[in-house]
Amino acid sequence: xxxxxxxxxxxxxxxxxxxxxxxxxxxxxxxxxxxxxxxxxxxxxxxxxxxxxxxxxxxxxxxxxxxxxxxxxxxxxxxxxxxxxxxxxxxxxxxxxxxxxxxxxxxxxxxxxxxxxxxxxxxxxxxxxxxxxxxxxxxxxxxxxxxxxxxxxxxxxxxxxxxxxxxxxxxxxxxxxxxxxxxxxxxxxxxxxxxxxxxxxxxxxxxxxxxxxxxxxxxxxxxxxxxxxxxxxxxxxxxxxxxxxxxxxxxxxxxxxxxxxxxxxxxxxxxxxxxxxxxxxxxxxxxxxxxxxxxxxxxxxxxxxxxxxxxxxxxxxxxxxxxxxxxxxxxxxxxxxxxxxxxxxxxxxxxxxxxxxxxxxxxxxxxxxxxxxxxxxxxxxxxxxxxxxxxxxxxxxxxxxxxxxxxxxxxxxxxxxxxxxxxxxxxxxxxxxxxxxxxxxxxxxxxxxxxxxxxxxxxxxxxxxxxxxxxxxxxxxxxxxxxxxx
Length: 486
Known about the structure:
By secondary structure, the chain is α+β, with helices and mostly antiparallel strands.
């Protein structure tokens, strides 16, 4: 499992990044803190009453997210900014004025607050699922795809390592670039900070006489990340090396999904979380699986028999073969390269440009109708290999488009395999020797260096997913591009 393999390698980026600015005030993004903040609370966290709920972190079209921590009376005390759920009434639980201020840009957390709130709780808005736990879990089953083996133990009292797919949905194994839901349970809807301002209509009648929500809903517990990729890119500019590593991480995450027969279908910078590794490199994690395709029976080929079939979210970043599909008998939409196309579009934002598929006006493109020669040119500072990868990811024809695996291999070879590409001709013994060297270095450095380096995690993913055809395709592509550019 790549997510559990020790880290190694040399880092090239500055060791201390500048502070992050949020809402006009400055705070530093905390460094990587490990994968499971609940690891020391194995038998806890299956009830909402066990959590201390803090301030809002974010809000989407179907849920609100809050900072949280396991409630320990010896370590936490009630305050105006964070109060336990117990013993509260709708009239006295929260100061609505402070909620509005937080929603309008007041810094949600300082470093000390983040240390006190290592978790994030996502409260789904339940409008149509009913109030039974089974109905809620069935209706919102996509959200459970990245759930850990023990996430649902409290609901079903199952053995963690033997959990079966929930309601026909695939179970996704851990990956360093995929969010992990570490607890999932149903509970009564509480009144949380900002509720009356941010989402009054979806509250139940017990909390809002005009609300249309049900009294019970699904809660998902995850690690608390400092910011989204959108926030990170709005506040910082990255050099070519860091930008390449960010694109590579998204490709590794998408490849992991494809290998498990899952399509995210809603990739965008708001659905990618970021924290910094020990060297200051952004660590990207794909989150929000509410629109994903993860059916045990159909895999990545969705029967598109009518316009009522859900094709996924975020129409602006919907791959051409998805957005142009016309329903009919026997029609299938193949999602095997759809998320890779979205990574190509997001790469423009990572590389410092506007996403060409957002906005309005003549400069804006539509995935339904654009032509490849209309894509904006990338800056001269972007490495040639990266430009070619982005271009190939945005091919309209999925048969000509790079898969996430091959695209990731190209970037791996470009970053770390230059010595086997210099002769401009591939030799099997050189390739094998390089791979053996990389593998030996990984094993040798096990436990000897910091285990929270993005660069080393990516090398580990590369070595864990090696396939002969994909690797040689990537190598030949690189040499072909370079030979044609001379």
